[in-house]
């Protein structure tokens, strides 16, 4: 009989929430009973599935609490769901705080349950650097029954930073086959004020400092001098206003289109010719897969898991962090060479299908789950 799996994740727009939700949907389609435990319904969970349940974590907020105790409310809810729904596995996405809360819940619950933790990056590459949290993250890793990392780079970094004994399996992020786009690309381009002959460069992120959106803009500044083009900036976050100012300073107001947060980026990718992800920290870069699955070549930095997704010179380019001249030169060369672009585009699609298809990757999670019960 298929197992009952509880998935604990951040429901908001962001790679880890997308991966957790898509995993749940794929498992449900294979007959698992899936229980999402989160503060709000994961945003990609748009359809109704008979065997997917959602359990809302309500955070108590009494005046005596200086900070609402999200972690405790979550642990309590996980324990409650383990017992009531007779779960076999809790799959926590992020060590901090989701794995920790799951471990507390396991101790509270009356039923034996296995904990699987998937490391997505920031818990290791950002929080891991904070000494005060290191012991806690170590504890989450060692006490989990199974641990995965979304890239080899993240697995290596976790071992180096935490020196943990627990084996960490690399299970890359994945993508479902892309549905045909509903919007007509030429109409969408026209609606956005992009001329038919203009190339479209796209960047999608949460505009945190680590994403180095300023490098995207500086690279575009050089690109647009040689290639008629527009830059689509999709997302929102702390660096948003600084980026607006930079664009004004560079006189790029008419050539950069701010799209804000978008749940459905597929149509925007359909009209794009090049994806830029120039982060200084990136454990994987799910947005790269989303672009490459649509045949959009990408340029990324030689950071974290990015080189596990982009094959330099085959389906995109890998450049050094901050080297905007090199990034721009490579982009100009690619955008001006139709044959090269088509080659990269074909390779991008096939590389994603061969290596990051949901069918292949979800099977790896299933094998991991099975292994916990033998
Ligand atoms: O990109 C982000 O900063 C959001 C973050 C998240 O929590 O969704 O992304 C992390 O997990 C994604 C899914 O595994 C990865 O594709 C991103 O590379 C990773 N972000 C970082 O490592 C900065």
TrEMBL record:
User: Can you give the residue ranges of the Glycosyl transferase family domain?
Assistant: 189-349
Q: What GO MF annotations does this protein's record show?
A: glycosyltransferase activity
Domain of life (superkingdom): Bacteria
Task: Quote the Pfam families the UniProt record gives.
Answer: Glyco_transf_4, Glycos_transf_1
The alphabetized list of GO BP terms reads: bacillithiol biosynthetic process
Give the residues annotated as coiled coil: none
> What Gene3D superfamilies does its record include?
Glycogen Phosphorylase B (3.40.50.2000)
The segment(s) forming the Glycosyltransferase subfamily 4-like N-terminal domain are 13-176
What protein is this chain from?
N-acetyl-alpha-D-glucosaminyl L-malate synthase BshA
